[in-house]
Design a protein that fits this description.
112 residues, mainly alpha
């Protein structure tokens, strides 16, 4: 909550824009991560996980960490070992997809 509140500088309109961006971009950016895991493409995994991490870093430390682990597996050429970590990321994204649309500045402040 604190990370997201500081990311939007306590501005409700900016938070709304960030939420809309997340809802539009999360499925679009997650798809190439999944494709890279399925095809064991290490370079694609590195690139896709990095992009996804940038999107979720304001919303969830756990999702960002899962994306970072996937990115590291890509860097190390270990995309074939990424399926379990992808499930962790996918689960975090599903949870975020439920929570993010309901967020307000007041809710974020109440969580700090």
């Amino acid at each position: 909550a604190e990370t997201l509140l500081s990311s939007c500088a306590g501005d409700a309109a900016l938070l709304a824009d960030m939420i809309q961006l997340f809802q539009e971009e999360a499925p679009r950016l997650l798809a190439p991560v999944e494709a890279a895991v399925r095809s064991s493409d290490a370079e694609q995994l590195r690139i896709a996980a990095h992009s996804f991490r940038g999107l979720v870093s304001s919303f969830s430390i756990g999702a960002a960490r899962a994306a970072e682990v996937l990115e590291q597996l890509g860097i190390e050429g270990r995309a074939g070992e990424a399926a379990e970590q992808y499930q962790v990321l996918n689960q975090a994204v599903q949870e975020l997809s439920t929570i993010v649309p309901t967020l307000t500045i007041e809710k974020l402040r109440a969580q700090i």
